[in-house]
Write a structure and sequence with these properties.
Among the domains are: 24-315, no CATH class; 551-675, no CATH class. 66% of the residues lie in helices and 1% in strands. It has 30 helices and two strands. It has helices at residues 2-8, 13-45, 49-57, 64-81, 84-111, 122-141, 145-168, 191-202, 210-216, 241-266, 275-279, 285-295, 301-315, 317-320, 332-345, 350-362, 366-373, 382-398, 402-412, 420-436, 448-464, 480-501, 516-523, 532-542, 553-569, 573-583, 589-592, 599-615, 623-645, 654-672; strands at residues 473-474, 477-478. The termini are far apart.
Length: 675
């Protein structure tokens, strides 16, 4: 009202003073709204959705930051749960926040009132980028290829905005980032561009794969490649607390968003390399990590999200890589300090307890991790409850506690809708391992009644799993893990049918080959965190004499690969390498086509890992001899991983395995200075 009335008055000295006063009041109100919105987002991090909602509801829902806060809330639920209705709601709320932030920026530019050391309206420009970045993730979680391609263009627009904000704080022209000329869609909310792209692609009247969609939209000029960023260090020049708040929000936000963008893009596997032509730049992992660490110094939600990103990276993608150097090893001290700070700040938050449990598991103490995950908690966010249960289920699986693991996976079907097919499949193969009893625990009761029950449950769950395949899709295609499990079950059923014709049981359980539970352990990198006793159990399960078609090429190759990995994790590196060379490397792609083809690229990858591991073995060599051996080992490892990366991408689980290969190559390149 003050602002409106000031515009209606005459252009006199008194009206000018009134206008200045009204602008000051508006700036103060906007800073207050930002502060309260950040408080609400803090409640989200504390898993207190009730207080977060109440705080946001008290604010004007037509303002940018309350709208963004509500978008953040539903975004986190969508990203954690992968549920279609939540994804749809998140898309709508983030689009609304993006449009509102664009309007607020234009209003701030017009009013020219100072709220920070950055150009007028920069805080709203950052909000646009944040909404686009979250919107891109949500679109990618959608099930169509069209949505996936649109998500990459949102990433591109977010990059453009962040580059402009970054450049506004850099005074040395040589350090400024190049922003593409064709950026007219930046800051417009992106709605028109999205509709144009969607209309064009839908007009093709076909269900595009992700690769086809990228081919159709490959005309956009690329952004600069191999961009190097330096973290923004927020040293606010203002003595005004409100301006300092906005300065910190912008600096920490740019560090967080650029850090996440760079990190995610740096891990894109070879199979999806065409994405880089749309996004237009290659991620730089080293820069991203530095920016995220800088963001963690902030006390707002950006600091919390930056630490979460680092924890997820070091307990996830970084852990799938078996090649570690001093440069690539996770910074235990920094992660532990940050986690301790967040646990003190959010003592009741289940999300931070989950991260602490993962840290324990990452350091090889699965029992301590299980103890933490078993802590009674009041959890408001159902998606977090599902994450905790999934982590617990994987810990139980890695400890070969198959009955408890099966119960946990079955419970997951009641908590979220991510992949009931996978949950049932893993529960079923847990019962297969119980039925076989290749490595029973001391004192474990194995009565005929229990064995019959385990076999029945295994058959029920395995045969039920295919009926749930395809309910969830990624980039317009069935989920790779579901394609994998469906093929496995079809193979087992074919064997069971053939067996029944010659007097066999005809049970799908008796058609199961090499320990499928150990395959899942391998895909989730369970061997790396197993205690010695669990590794011994894996060898016994892999050696099970009753496995169907035990000596067939596909089953023998799976067994040889997994045994070699177990041996390496036992410290028997040379023995593991020999096992690979005898059983896996001689197998060609044609032999494994339409069967266990994933074993071939994994074998190449594992051969590279063994080469690296042999080069770093402890012995009595001189320092110079060790250096030469390590250099040769890294060269050999790079050669094998390069072969794995060039293998092709038309095999199951290529993306999951590709991340493992790509991360290993990144470590080796960084160590040898080739990046």
């Amino acid at each position: 009202m003050l602002k409106a009335s000031s515009w209606m008055r005459n252009r006199s000295a008194s009206s000018s003073a009134s206008l200045a006063s009204s602008q000051s009041l508006n700036a103060l109100a906007e800073c207050s709204t930002l502060s309260k919105s950040l408080d609400a987002m803090d409640y989200i991090m504390a898993d207190d959705l009730k207080r977060a909602t109440e705080t946001l509801d008290e604010l004007d829902e037509g303002e940018t930051f309350p709208a963004l806060g509500k978008g953040v809330m539903v975004f986190i639920e969508a990203a954690l749960g992968f549920e279609a209705d939540v994804i749809k709601d998140a898309t709508a709320k983030l689009n609304a926040a993006e449009v509102q932030a664009t309007r607020s920026r234009h209003r701030a530019q017009k009013a020219k009132h100072r709220t920070s050391m950055f150009p007028h309206g920069t805080e709203y420009y950052l909000a646009v980028a944040e909404a686009q970045l979250m919107g891109a993730v949500v679109l990618f979680l959608g099930e169509s290829a069209i949505s996936s391609v649109k998500s990459f263009y949102k990433l591109r627009r977010a990059y453009q905005i962040l580059a402009e904000i970054y450049n506004s704080s850099v005074h040395d022209e040589k350090l400024k980032l190049q922003v593409p000329i064709n950026s007219k869609d930046v800051g417009s909310g992106g709605v028109g561009k999205d509709k144009e792209l969607s209309k064009m692609m839908e007009g093709l009247d076909l269900e595009l794969s992700l690769e086809q969609g990228l081919e159709k939209e490959s005309s956009t000029p690329p952004l600069p490649a191999n961009v190097k960023f330096k973290p923004l260090r927020c040293v606010s020049k203002s003595a005004n607390d409100n301006e300092a708040l906005v300065d910190e929000y912008i600096c920490s936000g740019v560090n967080l968003c650029f850090g996440i963008l760079q990190l995610v893009i740096s891990m894109i596997p070879p199979a999806l390399s065409k994405i880089l032509y749309v996004i237009g730049f290659q991620g730089d992992k080293e820069s991203s990590i530095k920016m995220l660490w800088q963001a963690t110094e902030s006390e707002n939600i950006h600091g919390s999200l930056a630490l979460q990103t680092l924890l997820m990276y070091y307990s996830g993608p970084a852990q799938v890589c078996d090649i570690e150097t001093k440069r690539s090893m996770h910074p235990r001290g920094g992660l532990k300090q940050g986690l301790a700070r967040m646990r003190a700040k959010y003592p009741e938050s289940a999300l931070w307890i989950l991260h602490e449990a993962r840290m324990q598991s990452m350091e090889g103490d699965i029992m301590k991790s299980l103890e933490m995950l078993d802590t009674p908690l009041t959890i408001q966010m159902r998606q977090v409850e599902a994450l905790i249960l999934f982590e617990k289920a994987m810990c139980l699986l890695d400890l070969h506690r198959f009955e408890k693991a099966a119960h946990a996976f079955i419970r997951l079907t009641h908590l979220n809708t991510w992949s009931h097919a996978l949950y049932r499949y893993v529960a079923g193969i847990c019962y297969v391992e119980l039925y076989r009893g290749a490595a029973p625990y001391d004192g474990e009761e194995r009565t005929p009644e229990k064995i019959a029950h385990w076999k029945k449950r295994a058959e029920e769950l395995i045969t039920e799993a295919p009926s749930a395949v395809g309910r969830r899709k990624m980039t317009g295609r069935p989920m790779p893990l579901e394609v994998y499990l469906q093929r496995k079950i079809e193979k087992w059923q074919a064997r069971a049918t053939a067996s029944a014709a010659t007097g066999g049981s005809g049970s799908v359980v008796d058609g199961v080959g090499t320990s499928p539970a150990n395959e899942i352990m391998y895909f989730w990198n369970g061997y790396k965190r197993m205690p010695p006793q669990a590794l011994e159990r894996s060898l016994k399960e892999l050696a099970y004499e009753g496995a169907a078609n035990r000596n067939a090429p596909d089953e023998a190759a799976v067994r040889g690969l997994l045994e070699s990995v177990v041996m390496r994790n036992q410290g028997l590196v040379a023995e593991g390498r020999q096992r690979l060379e005898e059983t896996v490397l001689p197998i060609d792609r044609v032999t494994m086509k339409k069967s266990e083809e994933w074993v071939v690229p994994c074998g190449l990858y594992e051969r590279g890992v063994s080469a690296w591991a042999c080069g770093y073995m402890e012995d009595g060599l001189s320092a110079e001899a060790k250096r030469k051996r390590e250099t040769a080992a890294m060269a050999e490892a790079s050669d094998w991983l390069g072969k794995a990366a060039r293998y092709g991408h038309d095999y199951e689980l290529s993306t999951r395995i590709g991340v493992r290969i790509q991360t290993g190559l990144e470590v080796l390149r960084a160590e040898t200075g080739t990046v």
